[in-house]
Structure prediction request, 260 residues.
Amino acid sequence: MTIPNSLARAASHAVKTSALLREAPRPATTQKAQLRRYEVSCLMKNGDVSQMRHIAPALPMFEDAFCAFSRGSLVETELGPVAIEDLMPGDSVLTQDGTSQKVLWKGSVTLIPGREDSRGRRRPLTRIMADTFGMQKPLSGVIAGPAARLLGTPAHLRHIHGNESILTPVSEFQDGMSVIETMPPTPVELFHICLEKHSVIRVDGLQFETYHPGTNAVRMISHSLRSIYLNLFAHIESLNDFGPLLIPRAGDGEVDAITA
Prediction:
């Protein structure tokens, strides 16, 4: 029986990832790295769409590439709102400045937000009630993943950023009433996308960013894990290929790095 090319590629990546993980130095007291399955669709240079399954570490930098939008989130495209799970590489998404860009990459992961990982860490979601940020913002209730960032500055950060437009982790908007933390005990599928460059897009009436690892990505990931991370993105060859951030981010040192 002939093995499909997609499965062969997935197996090849799994073997390569395992080898790289074995080579990565680990302190004697560190627990065995937890692995996670990541699903990836990517637009190749010849116009084909590659769909692959990767096994990679369940580390924050890896998970953040997948954990922004929950199933059913509606993304504004040239053809109208499209559910994030139905969006495909090659589709055109409307951006904040009114132009459109192609989706180059879409990733998804399934996790249980209420379950602790090997390090005792959980990945809570954020529920945003309808009209929280104004009429039809969002259009209806939205559940965003832990890596989602909104264009806006919550009140408790305005003494730092003033009226500057920044990309803020959605959890920073939690107020216990209209924006609340939620940790379902059952599996949840989350998604993220990359466009031709870092952008702000409209999802369920709110302005979210597309995926970018951040200006400090090089310092956040070891050399031994960098190859595993880049394997998740077939459309790029290095971290520099993500390009610059469109707008400064709150936290993680990105704002300092940009304004310095």
